[in-house]
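Hi,

Apologies if this is the wrong queue. I'm a grad student, and the batch job for 2-oxoisovalerate dehydrogenase subunit beta, mitochondrial-like from Echinops telfairi produced an output file that my downstream script rejects. I'm not sure whether the problem is my script or the file. Here is the sequence I used:
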Amino acid sequence: MSSVEQVPVEPYNIPLSQAEVIQEGSDVTLVAWGTQVHVIREVASMAQEKLGVSCEIIDLRTIIPWDVDTICKGIQDG
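Support response: The file is valid. Your script probably expects a header line. Output copied below for reference.
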């Protein structure tokens, strides 16, 4: 599976150890990093279409260190 996304032309920084909530959801929180983020997006889409399940998606960005606060907030809110 390949993916194509917008890539900024200007220089930019990605804060390490700070996860990004890339999709809001209310039923379940899905956490992934790297190429698995694209797989999780597909899973979330299928869950919404077939089961009516609203999925929050969190991209960890890094595993060590990983953003415990964002993950815990997602689990509590979801």
